[in-house]
Design goal:
Elements: E1 11-22, H1 61-73, E2 81-82, E3 85-88, E4 98-101, E5 108-117, E6 120-133, E7 137-141, E8 150-154, E9 161-167, H2 174-191, E10 202-212, H3 226-231, E11 235-240, H4 243-262, E12 270-275, E13 280-286, E14 296-297, E15 304-305, H5 319-330, H6 334-340, H7 344-356, H8 359-376, H9 388-399, H10 405-419, H11 423-430, H12 437-450, H13 452-459, H14 465-476, H15 483-495
Parallel strand pairs: 11-12
Antiparallel strand pairs: 1-9, 1-10, 2-15, 3-4, 3-14, 5-6, 6-9, 7-8, 10-11, 12-13
Helix pairs in contact: 2-4, 5-6, 7-8, 8-10, 9-10, 12-14, 12-15, 13-14, 14-15
The protein binds adenosine-5'-triphosphate (ATP) and magnesium ion (2 copies).
Amino acid sequence: MTAQTVQQGDLVTVIGLEVHVQLETDTKIFCGCSTEQTDEPNEHVCPVCLGLPGALPVLNEGAVEAAVKIGKAIDAEIPEETRFHRKNYYYPDLPKNFQITQYDEPICADGELEVAVEGTRRTITIERAHLEEDPGSLQHVGGGIDTADYTLVNYNRAGTPLMEIVTAPDFRSPSEVRAFLAELEEVLEYLGVFDAERDGSLRIDANLSIIPEDEIESGDIDDIGSSALETANRTEVKNISSHKGAQKALAYEETRQKNAIERGRAVEQETRHWDESRGITVSMRSKEEEKDYRYFEEADLPPLRVADWKDEISIPELPSARRERFQAEYGLDEESASKLTSTKQVADFYETVAAEFDPDLAATWVADNLLGELNYRDMEITDLEGRLNEVTRLVELVATDEITAKNARETVLRSMLDDERTPEEIVDAEGLGKTGEDEVQQAVVEAIDENPDAVSDYESGDDGAINFLVGQVMQKTGGSADPGDVNQLLRAELEA
Ligand SMILES: Nc1ncnc2c1ncn2[C@@H]1O[C@H](COP(=O)(O)OP(=O)(O)OP(=O)(O)O)[C@@H](O)[C@H]1O
Ligand SMILES: [Mg+2]
Ligand SMILES: [Mg+2]
């Protein structure tokens, strides 16, 4: 981290995140109900996730495995034994009137994640990450949270496994937060524990405070000191569900708090709600304190021992390591390496193509052509499930010179994505097979015969005239000859 010195009168922005990640498991964390998303309200519910009397929770092994993977990826301490607690509060989305969560013995503590922010590396400390159950969801009818006519409650989501990842207050700007969220999401996807496409699978509570420079004794904004952090009044903004939303909500909050301070008004410690459609944060309630929740141990679940099991759980190579390896092993620049490691599927596909052909050709095809066309269609590589071998065959047609790179990219690839035909079908139907050498030679001779003016221009030293002749040959061959080859053939013929 580069030390940044504060100037007199500066107001320093401090941000810490609580990120709630839905873990991708088939069933809920404490019962056998499906976690599948459905439009039918209250379809996936049972006595356990509805909190009916006498129902007992049974911990889902898959959720614990996912939590251990996350812990390993963020280099956290995973204790041999961990416990669950009840966090008591009333809210209509919480049928038991308490949430089963973890308290002083979380499954992961003291981890970190490195992020690149505008060229500099920042290490963000992750104080803890713990397992808990998601509450149900509320649907406000006829208005927003504060203006609705009435509110419906849906318990399909209640009991979905969540990992709450709590960072230290290490961020100094909303754009750092955005970079962190992007990196975190990549890591979670690589681990296969998270589905970014799922609505509400990543939800963020963002804490922000503004600390005046004269309260930072060290003078270094990365070393603010715990007393200044603790005494600062922070707001916690809830209801953020995207990276961009987090950046916008925090930028709003940063300005709002700075304005208050500059006008000599106090910032209240409170919980605020991000109103996405209006682009503002609104006050919800004063911030509850830990003692309000009356945490106590969940007696219906025994302590969880992961001591021996955790060593058997392995994780794949992570995006940052893979990015660096791609640069070293395939000679890619940082930008291509980043694009090619953006998801595990893209990286895996790149490596298959690079192994079979050439790393540069593979980079052009996967990073530029394929991702470019997918992006344009709002598609993901996962939408091509089962068809990636067709893309490989298309690259092969280019590598073996059977079609031109231009036709492959602009006609074959686009048609493949639009109408699901195979590359071979498209090449045949559109007559894109590269024109044979004889045919090109024939077209060269014709072009020379038919254009005596261009020929005499060329002969009297006007080298540009060759381009006109190349154009004529390209026209005669329907664009399926290689312009470089045509140029050479023309020169050879004219010099003969
Ligand atoms: N001065 C500060 N300015 C901004 N963020 C802060 C500051 N001090 C602490 N934070 C952040 O506030 C968050 C506290 O989260 P934590 O889950 O521990 O408590 P909480 O929000 O009080 O509890 P709950 O889970 O009930 O919402 C952390 O992300 C931490 O980095
Ligand atoms: Mg909080
Ligand atoms: Mg919290």
